[in-house]
């Protein structure tokens, strides 16, 4: 399968911090790859390198065959980026934000207005189109952010934690938008801290930790590896252990649980 993104051996160090410590990443055309990892794992750093915003110390990456270092203009013409933090201008309305971006991308005046109207409609923001973005709810702002990253009709979209901080309803709206884009053939690289989000949207998941890839696979494969549930119970008195075993056995339908007994 053709690759939309291929990164090999990406390294980026900030002093002692190894933000990226030899990352390989492949995103097939038309697929969604989720990069999952905790705070500081290197997700945003990887996105910034792939978006030509940051030079890696070592390694190389291509987007549809164009090298991010040697041919950044070609890469930029193919990609859209919704950064981790809102990038729209708070004082401009939804329409003004999108028209501004379209004009910067060389749309004609009429073309820019038409593109803005089309995106606002697609993201169900038409009713709020004339209001300043600072009056939007978190979910609406995120949708406007997403709309902004689509003005240039990207074939590859980077979404850096698109739903962090959103309530379940707003999160579902963003997920629906992403699914629609993918149905239209857009390739998506999505970072997230939530296995559930990667599971919902991604065809495959790459797990980052401390700047390294620590696991990779389809969501169901990864869940099978890490999906067990753990219940830790500490009775106030050791004498109650047998009762606790019995109750837990009844509750979980399992045999005697694994125990560690420590004198406290
Ligand atoms: N400009 C910078 N200067 C110094 N250190 C940086 C810089 N950018 C990132 N780092 C460090 O690199 C590491 C990776 O950061 P990065 O932002 O890529 O993580 P992340 O996975 O996106 O985390 P989060 O989930 O919190 O957004 C962190 O330890 C961070 O402090
Ligand atoms: Mg980040």
Q: Tell me the number of structural domains.
A: 2
Give the class-level CATH name of the largest domain.
Alpha Beta
Overall outline: globular
Sequence stretches where pLDDT stays below 50 over 5 or more residues? none
Q: By helix and strand content, what is the structural category?
A: alpha/beta
The CATH topology name of the largest domain reads Rossmann fold
Number of helices: 9
Name every ligand kind in the structure.
adenosine-5'-triphosphate, magnesium ion
What is the gyration radius calculated from CA atoms? 23 Å
Task: Pick out its properties.
264 residues; alpha/beta; Rossmann fold; 2 domains; 4-stranded antiparallel beta sheet; globular; binds adenosine-5'-triphosphate; binds magnesium ion
Structure description:
By secondary structure, the chain is of the alpha/beta class. The protein has 2 domains: 3-226, Rossmann fold (3-Layer(aba) Sandwich); 229-264, no CATH class. The chain contains 9 helices and 10 strands. The protein has helices spanning 43-50, 72-76, 94-104, 109-122, 138-149, 168-183, 195-201, 219-226, 241-252; strands spanning 3-14, 17-28, 32-36, 58-63, 66-67, 79-82, 156-160, 187-192, 204-209, 212-217. The strands form 2 sheets. The chain has a 6-stranded mixed sheet with strand order 6-7-8-3-9-10, with helices on both faces. Adenosine-5'-triphosphate is lined by residues 14, 17, 19, 37, 39-45, 84, 193.
């Amino acid at each position: 399968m053709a690759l939309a993104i291929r990164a090999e051996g990406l390294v980026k160090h900030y002093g002692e911090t190894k933000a990226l410590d030899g990352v390989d990443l492949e995103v097939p055309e038309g697929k969604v790859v989720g990069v999952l990892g905790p705070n500081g794992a290197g997700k945003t750093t990887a996105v910034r390198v792939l978006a030509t915003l940051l030079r890696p110390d070592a390694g190389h990456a291509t987007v549809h065959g164009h090298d991010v270092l040697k041919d950044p203009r070609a890469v930029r013409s193919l990609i859209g980026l919704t950064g981790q933090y809102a990038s729209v201008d708070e004082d401009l309305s939804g329409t003004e934000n999108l028209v501004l971006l379209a004009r910067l991308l060389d749309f004609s005046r009429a073309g820019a207005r038409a593109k803005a109207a089309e995106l606002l409609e697609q993201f169900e923001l038409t009713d709020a189109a004339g209001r300043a973005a600072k009056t939007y709810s978190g979910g609406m702002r995120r949708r406007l952010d997403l709309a902004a990253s689509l003005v240039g009709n990207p074939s590859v979209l980077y979404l850096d934690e698109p739903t962090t901080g959103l309530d379940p309803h707003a999160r579902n709206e963003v997920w629906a938008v992403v699914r629609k884009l993918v149905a239209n053939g857009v390739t998506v690289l999505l970072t997230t801290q939530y296995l559930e989000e990667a599971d919902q949207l991604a065809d495959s998941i790459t797990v980052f930790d401390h700047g390294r890839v620590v696991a990779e696979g389809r969501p169901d494969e990864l869940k099978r590896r890490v999906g067990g549930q753990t219940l830790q119970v500490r009775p106030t008195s050791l004498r109650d252990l047998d009762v606790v075993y019995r109750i837990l056995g009844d509750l979980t339908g399992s045999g005697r649980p694994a125990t560690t007994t420590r004198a406290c």
